[in-house]
């Protein structure tokens, strides 16, 4: 459409059709989600149906409980358009899981054994050889276990845990697919996009010209009218054709949507909430809510910065300290391709180099800080003996000695005298220890070493 035609077609009185009941604009009162949660209709968007592919069994079980209650009360709706979008995207989620697990096998570092006969008389060398054998055995077992998981995923024929859950719950009456006249919908879509009336005008560049959002919205309107109830729309969508935004954050649903729903439904309220917020509203455990909130936030950040799944994976591997060559091996890509991805990442995150990009990703919440938290410590303790833990963190025997003496309260000079080394050498050892344990100072380093059972608690 030319600029001249747009100007000719533009309705200068568009506000009259968007807000036909002027007086009502001053007296509208929205009831809060908390007030309506026990009698409203809950409508699910596509992104909320896909989130469970990124969470654990406990979270999935709690989601099942919430959905089952809503289905029993006939208060859960999946728009027909959402069901179709889910069918198009479900395979991508399964492919991502398979791909990421496959790459885990390649990203496990290999131990390069070497024979040094001259050192065979040293006790420490014999211990090192023994440790290599134990670590190799663990790595072999790990790879075998991951391959078994991959075969299990390969055996799925649309009977993955999430699909089975939906097949069990989303039976007759849950999917709502009212018929719409295609010609009328195309005309309405063009009108809304020309006048920037939500929703969908931000998606005019898509192959479907943004009709998906409009179909979902009209389904919501029909549901509100048919059931004569308020609606909570569960969506991670934060585009400005759904939300009023400030500082990159969604504040309120677009008022045009709120008022249009009010008119259609006979005075009821319309709210948009994130999936995590819905679960919190219905009393799901805080740990599950937080897990899902984190997943939603990471997905939102990816979309905001235009980052692909592969680019995020490269950032994660870079955070682990892998070189460009190692990343290429782990992801089955060429080094040149990885460098191109890194260049794109720098542009999207406005970073000058890899370290700056990783730090930016940490600051915005795209990556999580690699710290020895309680869960990780327990896992390491259960799988590895303390001497293997030291190898896992690449701590040398001398660094362990420095840690032990530090735990006893010795200062740098005292440690140097005890070990017959210079003060500068001890400071270098301490710096290396801080880096390997991700510690801020000697107290932090000792505490983490105790938690990892590298040191005994005094």
Structural description of this entry:
The protein is mainly α and 458 residues long. It has 3 domains: 3-92 and 168-281, no CATH class; 286-363, Arc Repressor Mutant, subunit A (Orthogonal Bundle), CATH 1.10.10; 385-451, Winged helix-like DNA-binding domain superfamily/Winged helix DNA-binding domain (Arc Repressor Mutant, subunit A, Orthogonal Bundle), CATH 1.10.10.10. The chain contains 23 helices and 7 strands. Strands 3-2-1-4-7 form a 5-stranded parallel beta sheet. A hairpin with a 2-residue loop joins strand 5 and strand 6. The chain is elongated.
Blueprint of the fold:
Layout: H1 3-9, H2 14-18, H3 33-36, E1 41-44, H4 46-50, H5 57-72, E2 76-79, H6 80-107, H7 123-154, H8 161-169, E3 175-176, H9 182-195, H10 211-227, E4 231-234, E5 243-246, E6 249-253, H11 255-265, E7 270-273, H12 275-281, H13 286-305, H14 309-319, H15 324-331, H16 335-349, H17 354-363, H18 374-383, H19 386-392, H20 397-407, H21 412-419, H22 423-437, H23 442-451
Parallel strand pairs: 1-2, 1-4, 2-3, 4-7
Antiparallel strand pairs: 5-6
Helix pairs in contact: 6-7, 6-15, 10-11, 12-13, 14-16, 14-17, 15-16, 16-17, 20-22, 20-23, 21-22, 22-23
Structural class: mainly alpha
Average pLDDT value? 84
Portion in strands:
5-15%
User: Main sheet?
Assistant: 5 strands, parallel
What's the order of the H and E elements?
HHHEHHEHHHEHHEEEHEHHHHHHHHHHHH
Number of domains: 3
Shape: elongated
Short descriptors:
458 residues; mainly alpha; Arc Repressor Mutant, subunit A; 3 domains; five-stranded parallel β-sheet; two-stranded antiparallel sheet; 7 strands; 6% strand
